[in-house]
Design a protein that fits this description.
alpha+beta; two-stranded antiparallel ribbon; 1 helix; membrane; transmembrane helix; Hydrogenase nickel incorporation protein HypA; transmembrane
Length: 72
């Protein structure tokens, strides 16, 4: 297999572009998954409307602002 310098550089460029696209895609997917999981932990109080984070094991989250018990 005899490859010219131009063929080698073309293949190297395409390989680098594909690798860069794969890294960008992985970063976008990771960011989407993180934001989805973070949105699941957020709870909004039904009385005062305050948004806060609740632990996933607690079915009744207490609002730190007004103290009301909120169901998930």
């Amino acid at each position: 297999m005899n490859m010219s310098v131009q063929d080698f550089l073309t293949r190297l460029f395409l390989f680098a572009c594909g690798g860069f696209a794969a890294v960008v895609f992985a970063c976008l997917v990771t960011g989407y998954i993180r934001s989805f999981l973070e949105r699941r932990r957020k709870v909004q109080c039904r009385i005062c409307g305050y948004r806060f984070y609740a632990t996933p094991d607690n079915s009744h989250a207490e609002c730190p602002h007004c103290g009301a018990a909120n169901r998930r």
